[in-house]
Amino acid sequence: MRVINCCTRLHAPSSIRLSFVRRNHSQTHSYRCVGHGNCSLSTNQMEQRNLSANTVIDHPRALTDKITLIRDAGPSKFQVIADFDATLTRYRVNGLRGQTSHNLLQQGNAEYDAKRQALYDHYHPLEISPVIPIDEKTKLMEEWWSKTHDLLIEGGLTYDAIKKSVENSSIAFREGVVELFEFLEKKEIPVLIFSAGLADVIEEVLRQNLHRTFKNVKIVSNRMVFDDNGRLVSFKGKLIHVLNKNEHALDMAGPLHDQLGVDTGEEDEDEANAYVKQRTNVLLMGDHLGDLRMSDGLSYETRISVGFLNDNIEKSLESYRQAFDLVYLNDAPMWGAVELVSRLFSTEET
Ligand code: TMP
Ligand code: MG
């Protein structure tokens, strides 16, 4: 891959400029513009700019190799697996923490909304803490999700309340998400949105915010069961939280793509699973280290992983840049991923 310097304009609307940066191995925790010997910015200025909307690539050569492999194999071998909250959606909206599929919900019962908010205030700092051991954190996340699901049922959530909540929400997609989906749809590349949020809410968010459907996009997430009065009575299947996405990847991905309008030509679940498994090259996108496990069930050949590091940047960057092939800092837009897939499968000569 061509490494792009900090003043290069990518395939994005003219107002958007992104930079690819890499670690300067001679200085711990220092970053520089690649190929920018003549850059007039001081290191500090560059760091500030880079931290505002940049991409960290720790091993550009390895990324180049992966791009070549995926491009050579072609779009029929490729799929995208993306987390939803704070990956497809923005972490901050109008300067405030954007809402997630969970916390946009207004149950129509203020007492229960407050109880769920109190859980968020307690558990979210634990979720993003870089110092809690993974086993301990997994238990905490299970606790949080179970308590929240119980409160949604007890508090009498209705489907109408979901629609109204989404109408009044401050959830927003990153710029470039629609363009990404459109490009992938044209190339008949399936997109799996794999979320520890709420499937029914995510569907409503897609409906209301994108104003169109994509036949290649499908959701694996916690799915609600409503009674005849449209009142939530239970959740289907096993609970999905931020740290157990791996357990669900294989069994849910197959049937999912079967339903999503992608013509697999296969009728049963096993064959549909086989269809997804044929797509052994993956672009995985997430904002959480646990999101890396979304592809566990696939025995992929080549995977490019993209991490959105939205918060706790100073403390978490080290682990993110080791774990992901590319790390987008500070709530970056989706144009880098758009650029990446168009570079992978562009019909134009590059
Ligand atoms: P994701 O898998 O789509 O990122 O969704 C999980 C996010 O949902 C995670 O970052 C925490 C968030 N969340 C809330 O905002 N409120 C809640 O009540 C729960 C359980 C999770
Ligand atoms: Mg997320």
TrEMBL record:
GO terms for biological process: nucleotide metabolic process. It comes from the Eukaryota. It catalyses: a ribonucleoside 5'-phosphate + H2O = a ribonucleoside + phosphate. The keyword Manganese does not apply. Keywords: Hydrolase, Magnesium, Metal-binding, Nucleotide metabolism, Nucleotide-binding. One of its GO terms (cellular component) is cytoplasm. Transmembrane segments: none annotated. InterPro entries: HAD-like_sf, HAD_sf, Pyrimidine_nucleotidase_eu. One of its GO terms (molecular function) is magnesium ion binding. Its EC number is 3.1.3.5. Belongs to the pyrimidine 5'-nucleotidase family. This is 5'-nucleotidase.
